[in-house]
Design brief:
Bound molecules: adenosine-5'-diphosphate, magnesium ion
Largest sheet of chain B: 6 strands, mixed
Number of helices of chain A: 9
Largest interface: A-B, 14 and 21 residues
Radius of gyration of chain B: 21 Å
Distance between the termini of chain A: 62 Å
Number of helices of chain B: 11
Shape of chain A: globular
Number of domains of chain B: 1
Oligomer: heterodimer
Helix content of chain B: 25-40%
Order of helices and strands of chain A: HHHHHHHHH
Structural class of chain B: alpha/beta
Order of helices and strands of chain B: HEEEHEEHEHHHEHEHEEHHH
Chain lengths: 269, 276
Amino acid sequence: MSRLASVRGQIERLGSGLSSQVWRVGFASRFLAYMLLHSGTALRRFHLTIAEIYFAGVLSLVIILVSGLFVGMVLGLQGYETLQRFGASESLGVLVALSLVRELGPVVAGLLFASRAGSAITAEIGLMKATEQLSAMEMMAVDPVARVVAPRFWGGVLSMPLLAALFSAMGVFGGYLVGVQLIGVDAGAFWSQMQAAVDLRNDILNGVYKSIVFGIAVTWIAVFEGYDAVPTAEGVSRATTRTVVTSSLAILALDFVLTALMFTGGNGQ
Amino acid sequence: MQQSPVLELQKPIVEIRNVSFGYEAARPVLRDIDLAIERGAVVGIMGQSGCGKTTLLRIIMGALAPTRGEARVLGRATGELDRDALYAMRRKMGMLFQFGALFTDMSVYENVAFPMREHGGLPEELIHDLVMLKLQAVGLRGAAHLTPTELSGGMARRVALARSIALDPQLILYDEPFTGLDPISFGVIVRLIRELNDSLGATSVIVTHDVQEALGVVDYVYFMAAGRVIAKGTPEEIRASPEPFVNQFVNGKPDGPVPFHYPAPEYGADLELAGA
Ligand SMILES: Nc1ncnc2c1ncn2[C@@H]1O[C@H](COP(=O)(O)OP(=O)(O)O)[C@@H](O)[C@H]1O
Ligand SMILES: [Mg+2]
């Protein structure tokens, strides 16, 4: 009897949890639509957006560059280790570049961006809400979504592809350091094979598309969580955590979907 | 619908008629509120914390629509306005939030300039002069370059006041303007509220639970309890009010219609004397 009741209770909790998640996705979508409709200010007064690009970019720049370097160096080591077994160590440049441009660049840069800039955006908007700065703005007949949220959204969306590109470039440099300078792979082969094998449309552009999609996802989640935060210190800290968790999962899931769409069709021929 | 401006000026600037409101349908926060605020006055809306004062203020500023009744502000029913009309109305209103709500990523100067930049399209020299004028009015012209984190509580409140009068509002709303101020800052804010009201030819509404302090500032008082207006009148009339609740508040008595004890079971039962 009581067991049945507890099972029932669990099912009910699961159901209400699920339906409230669905509601949240709905709210977030309406929020996105409203924000896009009210992006005029962010685009007309573009210095507002530039300031946010600077904010998001500068915040993430160091961590992106350092991580890119190390990831590239590890790729150099691991790649050489495997390739030389097949006598293909000259292809190290190709391996490093393709891994970075197609996958690691957008994905790792996206994850770093989410935890550095995404969380900062959520905390900033959430604190502005908790300290009634957003209400004050509304009382001055200024729409906080147009004035505060939209510039941060566009700033994040525009920064992310640049950061992913920097990550990949740094990674290639790291691979070069380890592969060519340290291990002694032929520099000419390293670069020329890379140049020949990396395709502009298939590899580079697809990587850029990925980083654009990740940038939209992370920044959308970050601004929504901030705007929707419970306006207390605890509420803001919860929202910040949710931003990092949700956007990291979103990046990984989207990466699978995008990879399946982009690279399966082309490789068959 | 459209009335002559002269007639409009003789009517109250805020008219709340029979307004009820609840955040949830089951729990009304405001019940049958009636009040009228005349132009030029400094009016207090007073009562215990949680009695619905801020909610009433949100209805006046059009952030909430009444569930029943009508709120007319500056001659228009706020519940019926669309976003643009509401924003147009708010440009004629200033609001001082409880803790100032200054923009923490901007200097004092930029905070006061903010409403002018957003709405004015004014040249930079004019904005500069206007900001200095407003800061001079609250005595903080010298603090223009500071950031909000460098200000004391009283100074932050004054900067917020300068910002809320940036566009020369006809109606200024204050939510708990006296909370957490030392006696000197309190005196400064009291003087400013009166001075700004009279020099701008504005109308001021002060929402507060600091009843004794506020009675010295206002021309007229509405006294609220549990979502209703239970008394109204001049400060003298309120001080002399026979209503026990008002009396308890005005004299700051710890026990009365508002009990000292939160509702609880019998003391003996809680100490488990019954079982012994
Ligand atoms: N956003 C809200 N959602 C639900 N209930 C609220 C909200 N804001 C205030 N309340 C409730 O409404 C009542 C009146 O609150 P409020 O108007 O803030 O009182 P006061 O300003 O007089 O202290 C309180 O019981 C409070 O819990
Ligand atoms: Mg209040």
